[in-house]
Specification:
This protein is of the alpha/beta class and 179 residues long. 34% of the residues lie in helices and 21% in strands. Strands 3-2-4-1-5-6 form a six-stranded mixed β-sheet, with helices on both faces. Helix 1 crosses helix 2. The two termini are 26 Å apart.
């Protein structure tokens, strides 16, 4: 199964892309300032290209304020051609799943493809929590093997963003770009 076209589902499914930032340098003066490695930049660019190739160009973005997440988003924009204005949030950097959901609840009601660029374990935990228990089998198998840096999960969401919660999404794709 592939994600529905956002244009074909007026009033219907919204799409949420949960992206774990690309591979980052192991050390920096502080964790918040760790930049992406060259591999992390390549896989983030490839993630953006994959999204564009699937017609999943983000229209709204919530991005951690950490350098590695901001650089991931910049590469995704380059690869996808997204014109979404990102909300860089300190809260995403330290977010647990509840905090992440609180942020996503603030997405505009007309937002069609929202991307969350954050960190593990929150990214993986949120993807599992949101799935309705009937995921696309190949996507589920891939996600069950882990949620490495640069991985992304795509969920169809039939409820308004303000009602996003446990089992309100349907996992339709999982992708890990190779660098």
């Amino acid at each position: 199964m592939s994600p529905s076209s956002p244009d074909s589902s007026v009033g219907g499914a919204r799409l949420l892309v949960i992206l774990r930032h690309g591979k980052a340098e192991a050390f920096a003066a502080e964790d918040h300032r760790r930049p992406l490695t060259d591999r992390g930049r390549r896989t983030s660019l490839a993630a953006g290209e994959w999204l564009a190739g699937k017609g999943l160009v983000p229209t709204h973005a919530f991005v951690s304020s950490a350098v590695r997440a901001q650089e991931t988003w910049e590469a995704v924009v380059e690869g996808s051609g997204s014109a979404a204005a990102a909300r860089f949030e300190d809260a995403v950097y330290t977010a647990d799943v509840d905090t992440a959901l609180d942020l996503l609840h603030t997405a505009p009601s007309d937002a069609r493809i929202v991307i969350f660029v954050g960190h593990n374990p929150t990214a993986a935990s949120m993807a599992h929590l949101l799935d309705d228990g009937d995921p696309e089998p190949n996507a589920f198998r891939a996600m069950a093997r882990g949620f490495p840096p640069g991985a992304l999960a795509v969920l169809e969401v039939a409820v308004p963003w303000a009602e996003l919660g446990a089992a309100t999404g349907h996992l339709v794709a999982f992708h890990v770009s190779k660098g």
